[in-house]
Amino acid sequence: MEDEKPREPQIENFRIHDLRHTCAAWLVTAGVPLAEIRDILGHSTILMTEKYAHLAPDNLRSAIARLDTPRHVCVTSPSDGRQKSR
Hints:
Blueprint: H1 16-29, H2 34-41, H3 46-50, H4 57-65, E1 74-76, E2 83-85
Antiparallel strand pairs: 1-2
């Protein structure tokens, strides 16, 4: 084993940008919000970051499913106009 040479990388046409793309893809699939990914990668607009959104359709389904979770509702009392949580 001591005589074994390390293997040559099998990646062709590698660019440092490929690592940025991989980072963005991994963050999206991990459920990190796009605004945070934009900030991490330094994108000037969210539009650039949104190109990765398709990688995590389950995150979108999860976000919609949150609407089914009961939440406290604020209502205004007609008598005094103050908001009350119920």
